[in-house]
Amino acid sequence: MRIVKSADERKGEILDVAEQLFAEKGFDNASTNDIIKKIGIARGTLYHHFKSKEEILDAIVERMMNDSIARARAIIKDKTIPIFERLTGSMLVLNINNGVGAEVLEQMHKPQNALLHQKMQEGLLSGVVPLIAELIEEGNKEKIFNTKYPLDAAEMIMIYSSSAFDDLLELSPEEKERKTKAFIYHTERLLGAKENSLAKTIMNIILK
């Protein structure tokens, strides 16, 4: 008996399988035929939802971005977690440098995908910066931070972290430690936090 799935269910299934194949074979080596065979659907079904492999990648990027924003929001809103850990944790979930995320990043860094990379960066900034700003305002009230410009500080930290840690896995242990210490140093000053107040939390998470 043929199972009939809703449009959203079928699109989700296609993206799930495409993610798996892109991670296993790489984007360039995985084909739409591979996706079709693995799911067991007609070619017309795939192209009804996505016109090309590039469009599938675009949808994967958007889904990963939305998932990351949702996880960051959940961490930031959880007031049972200390502020420093919420700040670090929310930035950490935006790091997709693993599995299919690593493959997606590799594709986005290619010149032909510059607009896709820009789209993801802008989406993350617009989705997460206001949340980080709320957290900074909370820190101001608790006298943990001291900055007059929470929103601007949040934007600077997000832009800095995305560029500073974009290639973290390719660095030597010494370079990784230096870059992390520099990020801590400058972030503390942006937030008006005490020196080394962020060091333990960030070093434990990023350098583990």
Structural class: mainly alpha
Helix content: over 70%
Summarize the main sheet. none
Give the C-alpha Rg: 20 Å
Give a description of the structure.
- This protein is an all-alpha fold and 208 residues long.
- 72% of the residues lie in helices and 0% in strands.
- It contains ten helices and no strands.
- The chain has helices at residues 7-25, 32-39, 43-49, 53-77, 83-92, 99-108, 114-141, 150-164, 173-191, 199-206.
- Helix 5 runs parallel beside helix 10 (199-206).
- The chain is elongated and about 60 Å long.
- 24% of the residues are buried.
- The model has no long low-confidence stretch (mean pLDDT 84).
Short description:
The protein has about 210 residues and is mostly helical.
Describe the protein's topology.
Blueprint: H1 7-25, H2 32-39, H3 43-49, H4 53-77, H5 83-92, H6 99-108, H7 114-141, H8 150-164, H9 173-191, H10 199-206
Helix pairs in contact: 1-2, 1-4, 1-6, 4-5, 4-7, 5-7, 5-10, 7-8, 8-9, 9-10
